[in-house]
């Protein structure tokens, strides 16, 4: 499997961490095109 570098997602990671730290009362979705890195973004935020 080919390894693709994960970069330039600090803004998104900070925003998601802020939502999680605030104990959200609404459902939050992460969406985007296929193979845009959604799962990798989540995996880097949630250990």
Present the secondary structure layout:
Layout: H1 10-21, H2 38-45
Task: Summarize the structure in words.
This protein has 47 residues and is mainly alpha-helical. The chain has one domain (10-45). The protein is built from two helices and no strands. Helix 1 packs across helix 2 (38-45). The two termini are 22 Å apart. The model has no long low-confidence stretch (mean pLDDT 86).
Outline of the structure:
With 47 residues, the chain is mostly helical. Helices cover 43% and strands 0% of the residues.
Rg from alpha-carbon coordinates:
12 Å
Question: What is the string of SSEs from the N terminus onward?
Answer: HH
> How many domains is the backbone divided into?
1
Count of individual beta strands = 0
Q: Give me the oligomer status.
A: single chain
The major β-sheet equals: none
Task: Give the uncertain stretches in residue-range form.
Answer: none
Helix content: 40-55%
Shape: globular
| Share in β-strands | under 5%
| Number of alpha- plus pi-helical segments | 2
How far the N terminus sits from the C terminus, by CA atoms, comes to 22 Å
- Overall pLDDT score: 86
Q: Can you give keywords for this protein?
A:
47 residues, globular, mainly alpha, 2 helices
